[in-house]
Specification:
Number of helices: 16
CATH class of the largest domain: Alpha Beta
Helix content: 25-40%
Number of domains: 2
Bound molecules: flavin-adenine dinucleotide, NADP nicotinamide-adenine-dinucleotide phosphate
Structural class: alpha/beta
Strand order of the largest sheet: 3-2-1-4-18-17-16
Largest sheet: 7 strands, mixed
Shape: globular
CATH topology of the largest domain: FAD/NAD(P)-binding domain
């Protein structure tokens, strides 16, 4: 008699690609299921935790405590970690489908959205993705350069990433030096001559995507004024209704009203300018010198909200550095269907589709930012991953199943190691973690991060 898959005799074999929050919540949900499972995690970096390590702001350390839950999952005997292994390069999508009953793509959104305006690619115009990765010690961005000799930086976008980036530029470096911010970023910020950050929102204060705690933090930065234009707070009808109905917008509005009452007292400032869209980034000799912005008015968007429409009124903001914080995009993986328009992996309820409206790709699933696009906080990923795991469970009776001789995982282990000599196991990650935290403790910091893959691999060998 053939035993069903996910039974003691034929444990379900699952590959989870990516070790950010979404991947771990999928693992948690799978391990809680009343079934026998074996899970392998493939992570392109030697270190786990995705944006919790390389996105969450260094001055928000308490948020990173969520990794304690993920550590427990990594330590589970049913879970193996294959760090420093890139799916699509070191092992293919087709191979995963040969070695695993089910494959979960939890690869997040590693790239940036473009605005599509002239000058976007000039030196001195960078996506927030790069700046955040740089100050957080992501190996891909350790050698990035940002011109902090400029007096004014323009940050485009009104989400929480734009808020994080602005704080990183304006907060006291002595305070940041008590965090796990990358040493190269601390050294550069110590030399920074940036006095003003202009934060540009294309819509009004009521439509801003940032949340109130982050807005309040601006007002607490020592030696920095928060400057607003009272003209931006004269609301149209739709915004007035939104303000009455939306709690976050209303709390934000109150905080900004309080900022409007403050008298400027410092030589450094955060200037929150609403209803302005960048239309061109200017440069000389290939390097940014300014941004042309256009005044917007708000018009109905046809869905009960408002969108920005240019009025033709333009001005130029002089700057040497523009940070574009207008959202993230997933990076395609060879052989895996991708929705280029939306910048994510096409799926229905977490089941991977062969194109935006295509058929279900058997055995394959998506969670997190790769599934729904770049929105939502860490906690948002939990119900999202549980929903995908529910779809996976529904599909168990229909699975053909991999060859039973592959089920113990030894063949895939040998394959990966034959392709990639420097696989980092869970024990390897523990070595990296112990070293980083020891270096941090010696300086009164939570950790000092390795930012170079070679250094991580050296330590992981121990
Ligand atoms: C700058 C920033 C700050 C944030 N701050 C907060 C905050 O303070 N609080 C909060 O609640 N939320 C915050 N968020 C949101 C939160 O980080 C996301 O909701 C969450 O990280 C998304 O999880 P994910 O697993 O989908 O993606 P990710 O966290 O991006 O994880 C994806 C993982 O997949 C790996 N990967 C990618 N491609 C491959 C491949 N081909 N092969 C193998 N591995 C691969 C990546 O290396 C990464 O480890 C922040 C987001 C950003 C961008
Ligand atoms: N502390 C935290 O909890 C924290 C920290 C960081 C990130 N996060 C979460 O991570 C997610 C991603 O954050 P995010 O800031 O990248 O994205 P976001 O919240 O979606 O904000 C994107 C911003 O970019 C603007 N924008 C988009 N296209 C633009 C264009 N062409 N020109 C000008 N502005 C443009 C948007 O304006 P419109 O609204 O007009 O489109 C919006 O203000 C969010 O869910 C966020 O809450 C949380």
């Amino acid at each position: 008699m053939t035993h069903p898959i996910a039974s003691a005799e034929r444990p379900l074999c699952v590959a989870v690609v990516g070790s950010g929050p979404a991947g771990f919540y999928a693992i948690e949900s799978l391990l809680k299921a009343d079934a026998q499972v074996r899970i392998d995690i493939f992570e392109r970096l030697p270190t786990p935790f995705g944006l919790v390590r390389s996105g969450v702001a260094p001055d928000h350390q308490s948020i990173k405590g969520v990794t304690r839950i993920y550590e427990k999952l990594l330590a589970d005997a049913r879970v193996r970690f294959f760090g420093n292994v890139t799916v699509g390069r070191d092992i293919t999508h087709a191979e995963l489908r040969t070695y695993y009953d089910q494959v979960v793509y939890a690869v997040g959104a590693q790239s940036d959205r473009k605005m599509g305006i002239p000058g976007e690619d000039l030196q001195g115009s960078a996506p927030a993705t790069a700046f955040v990765g740089w100050y957080n010690g992501h190996p891909d961005y350790r050698d990035a350069q940002f011109d902090l000799t400029t007096e004014r930086v323009v940050v485009i976008g009104n989400g929480n990433v734009a808020m994080d980036v602005t704080r990183a530029l304006m907060e006291s470096v002595d305070e940041l030096a008590t965090t796990d911010m990358a040493d190269h970023a601390l050294a550069a910020l110590r030399q920074s001559q940036v006095k003003h950050v202009v934060l540009l929102g294309r819509r009004g204060p009521v439509q801003a995507a940032f949340t109130t705690p982050e807005l309040k933090e601006f007002g607490e930065i020592h030696g920095v004024d928060v400057v607003l234009d009272s003209g931006d707070f004269v609301l149209d009808e739709v915004s007035t209704a939104q303000l009455a109905n939306e709690k976050v917008a209303s709390r934000n509005f109150d905080v900004m009203q309080e900022y409007l009452q403050r008298q400027p007292a410092h030589s450094r400032s955060i200037q929150m300018q609403f209803l302005w869209s960048p239309v061109e980034i200017l440069g000389e000799n290939g390097k940014v010198t300014g941004v042309i912005v256009e005044r917007n008015r708000l018009v109905p968007d046809g869905n009960g909200g408002v969108k920005a429409e240019g009025t033709g009124v333009r001005r130029t903001i002089a700057t040497g550095l523009v940070l574009r914080s207008v959202g993230y995009r997933s990076v395609p993986i060879e052989g895996v269907p991708f929705d280029d328009r939306r910048g994510l992996f096409p799926n229905r309820d977490g089941r991977l589709l062969d194109g935006a409206n295509g058929a279900v790709v058997p055995q394959c699933y998506v969670v997190g930012w790769a599934k729904r696009g770049p929105s939502g906080i860490i906690g948002t990923n939990k119900p999202d991953s549980v929903a995908t795991v529910n779809a996976m469970k529904e599909d168990w009776p229909t699975l053909g199943g991999i060859a039973d001789e592959l089920r113990d995982g030894q063949a895939v282990d040998a394959l990966v190691r034959s392709r990639c000599a420097t696989v980092v196991s869970y024990a390897g990650w523990r070595c990296i973690d112990v070293h980083e935290t020891a270096m941090g403790n010696a300086q009164g910091r939570p950790r000092v991060k390795f930012t170079n893959i070679a250094d991580m691999l050296d330590v992981a060998k121990e």
